[in-house]
Please model this.
Amino acid sequence: MKTVDQFNFSGKKALIRVDFNVPLDKQTFAVTDDTRIRAALPTIKKILADGGSVILMSHLGRPKEGPEEKYSLKHVLPTLKELLGTDVAFADDCIGESATQAAAQLQPGGVLLLENLRFYKEEEKGDEAFAQKLAALGDFYVNDAFGTAHRAHASTTIVAKFFHGKACFGLLMAAEVASLEKVLNNSEKPFTAIVGGAKVSDKIMILERLLGIADNIIIGGGMAYTFYKAMGGSIGNSLLEEERIDTAHELIKKAQEKGVNIYLPVDSVVADKFAADANTDISLSKAIDDGWMGLDIGPEAISEYVATIKQSRTLLWNGPMGVFEMEKFQNGTVEVAKAVAEATANGAYSLVGGGDSVAAVNQFGLADKVSYVSTGGGAMLEYLEGKVLPGVRAVLES
Ligand code: AMP
Model:
């Protein structure tokens, strides 16, 4: 994988696709989580250190029809300036006169941020003429936006074709791919995958793939109850995907054939309503009474999961064990997070990814106690499913 480390950017302008799609405060528009901006800094700093200049382009949110104040990337400027410790120019359009002029005026060491790419519908359509206009701004193209690498948009894929021999990956992208490759192809055994979250349907492809590489698959979250239903259990009012019962059945069968251990939560924290102030109890997951729903894994499941995690040498975690946004149902996710951190301290390699599991490790202050926290949710899932991400392919083929 060719990265910025293989080029010297002295006197050159690098057009970098970053993922600055960060959460903003609804009233003040201040950045409330700067993880993605921090993640892009090593690439930017490398180019500036070479004596090059950078032009940053990104999307922010989902604007519908052209420019919308609340989705302006200018809201990101104060945070970016502070983190970089340097001034950053802003062009109020990503193409056209203002972008062209601002790019032309850039001096070595200078940084320019372009306005939201998705103010143009051409971005998501992967429009070639739009990509060409973006391409005209820089001498090199760098893709460092792992979070959008699974999208074939103008700035993530099409633009690369205008930079023959002058396109490469940023350091974040390279680190994300290296971490995924380590887990997929170079993992120490036992390899335990922890898969949680709401739906079987979202995770089915990754579960299928994991059957070929993992020794243990730990299942938590709402998706566990479709598995119990498939095995003939009573799950009360817990989350159920009727149309996935057969899929769950097949997965259990395939796992048995391949000798992969599938762990389902023996017991659950059940609630009489989906609410933070619900009454709660502990129930066997296969025998939940009507009127009750499983919203977290129970104490027995926790001790079984924690023991398995601690014996593992490679860990991959995607999706929470319960409704961790509510205090009464966060224990399972907290204990799993702590076990992953402890295993890591004892030498295991751990990769955590997917919006909610990342939010969980951040919330519990454990992000720096795991080996790698991915910045991409959808992109990570697609990579794990075995797809070549369009954003990766485009640079490889340029
Ligand atoms: P996902 O985006 O598929 O990883 O799902 C994350 C969401 O699943 C979180 O918002 C959790 O609150 C939710 N979730 C986890 N466990 C359960 C459960 N047992 N019942 C309902 N929702 C759940």
User: Anything to note?
Assistant: The chain has 14 helices and 17 strands. The mean pLDDT is 95. The two ends are 12 Å apart (CA to CA). The chain has two domains: 4-174+391-397, 189-347.
